[in-house]
Amino acid sequence: MSPTLADVAIPDSKLAREITELVRDTESPLLFHHSSRVYYFGALTGQRRGLKFDRELLYAGAMFHDMGLTHAHSSEHERFEVDGANAARDFLRSHGISQQDIDLVWTAIALHTTPGIPQHMHPVVALVTAGVEMDVLGMAYDQFSDAQREAVVHAHPRTEHFKEDIIQTFYDGIKHKPATTFGNVKADVLADKEPHFHAGNFCSVIRHSAWRG
């Protein structure tokens, strides 16, 4: 492991190794490496902010956060975030993890696409979202050094066209249950009352992020 990442290395534990094995065997390489980068960017964010957090729990949240996009863990009617959270819950429960810690990981995964809330919660919840926002949207890109970004991507490479690849992966994972996308009440109300209102577009933010490719 690069010295740049030594302080936030993946925990050397049986639990972490089994998480790695399960996610690697279940997710596509794109999602596996994305989830791994989410862990590193989340952990580096926590380190930069001086936050105290359990690295195993952060790793579990990061690695399972997109599990709901996989065929094996995609339900018919639940949001993909909930599917991923449930997969993590079942895995952690089978390994004797306390209910309090399971609930923390579940919440981190369930909220990782709900901006504006996780940042006010427990560090594990906040840092899973921070890692996702950095890797997918390039948020706080300039708060990481070139050496940190390069070390993370060297360990877990981005595909040449990652932005389009991740958008396609999201689409493939949710297209069979469009009703689960309902929910941003504020945007719906503004769109109803303000004829010139335009909601922010997730895909547009990805494509215009500071990341290349």
- The residue fraction in helices comes out at 55-70%
Low-pLDDT sequence parts: none
β content, as a range?
under 5%
User: Which class best fits the helix and strand makeup?
Assistant: mainly alpha
The CATH class, by name, is Mainly Alpha
Domain HD: 32-117
Protein name: Metal dependent phosphohydrolase
Organism: Paraburkholderia unamae
Pfam family, one: HD
Question: What do these coordinates show?
Answer:
With 213 residues, the chain is mostly helical. It contains ten helices and no strands. Helix 1 runs parallel beside helix 3, helix 2 crosses helix 6 and helix 4 runs antiparallel to helix 5. The longest helix has 21 residues. The mean pLDDT is 95. InterPro entries: HD_domain. Pfam families: HD. This is Metal dependent phosphohydrolase.
Summary tags:
213 residues; 58% helix; mainly alpha; Hypothetical protein af1432; globular
Q: Which helices and strands, and how do they pair?
A:
Blueprint: H1 14-26, H2 29-49, H3 55-64, H4 80-94, H5 99-110, H6 123-137, H7 146-155, H8 162-174, H9 185-193, H10 202-207
Helix pairs in contact: 1-3, 2-3, 2-6, 3-5, 3-6, 4-5, 5-6
